[in-house]
User: What shape does this take?
Amino acid sequence: MAERNGSERVGWAQAVLLDDPEFLRGIVERTLQVILEEEMTAHLGAGRYERGEGRTGYRNGAKPRTLTTRVGTLELRVPQDRDGTFSTELFARYQRSEQALVATLMEMYVQGVSTRKVAAITEELCGTSVSKSQVSAVVGRLDPELAAWRSRPLTAAAYPYLAVDARYEHARVDGRVVSLGVLIVAGVRDDGRREILAVEEADTESEATYHALFTRLKDRGVRGVELVTSDDHRGLKAAIERHFQGASWQRCQVHFGRNLRGMVGAKHRGRLGEELRSIFAATTPAQARAAARACAQGWRSSHPQVAVKLETEIEDCLACAAFPAAHRPRIRTTNGVERLNQELKRRTRVVRIFPNREALARLTTALAMEQSEEWVSGRRYLDMDPFWEDRRRPNVPVPLAAAAD
Assistant: This one.
């Protein structure tokens, strides 16, 4: 119970740091110190000066540690144990993305393109003497680590499920503010764990950009793809067909439903949404098709375009029906990467316009890296045993370095 409560408080504290820049620094500092002490208590199985059979070790003082956040620099004391086995979760996650965000704000400040809000936050975090050398120092620490993660080998035996999504951010390029795409690919590995496989910036969404993205993914080790879920982007679909021959394409049901509801007036959207949910909740493809035909027939007289779209495009939304029933709720949409998109939106709303492409890549990569680490180290996303029952489970490939030897 103590371990669970400690973990919940860590999550709460991280949310405070990231969401509320007005939170008083002193309160945050004292709260985080309490959380560090509780983490140590959970690690040792006993509180300070507490005796008990469940105790697994003893405290051994504390070491100072600073944590730079958007509410300022916090001075904390990290508890130590005699065996040196204690490791806090408090600093590990979000530290990279905090540094990436600070670096972005510093660049904007130095280049004179920041808003008053950005300038105020930067001065609070870094002081009023921010220089290009400071920016270079922060960037120099972050960029090699992020670049290595973006190009890392992908060593799972297979990646049966992929989800591809994109969002747009504004950045200054050649003196102009332009819209840049952020392309994200997430995958479910053969062991059922999720991983962010790629996050890349692109001038536009096109077959060429997705072709380049998928080429790099395959070069890094992506294999064994059985299903790719995405929206109905023509260039993306063409690239999927080209690179993942034999794999099925699942049109995101959420995107399809949103597009279809946009074809009717507001007073009809609730009814159409209910009918779509009944189609997607069908237990067999035959039942889903029958429900789609009935739905199309019901709208044919009043909204013939809805009927035509249902009849011609619903099949693309039902590809997930060929896979285990327990997997379908998680492979039928691109919602699996929605949390990452929400994080991107929450962080980038502070920046609004990135000072350059590199700053955009830095922050998006840091966030993707953190999310991927959380997924890989957490609970399995899917039980893959039903998937492999009628398929031959692939062997784990030989690591690239070992193969070279």
User: Anything to note?
Assistant: Residues 186 and 197 are 5 Å apart (CA to CA). The longest strand covers residues 161-173. Strands lie at 59-69, 72-81, 161-173, 176-188, 194-202, 227-230, 248-251, 353-354.
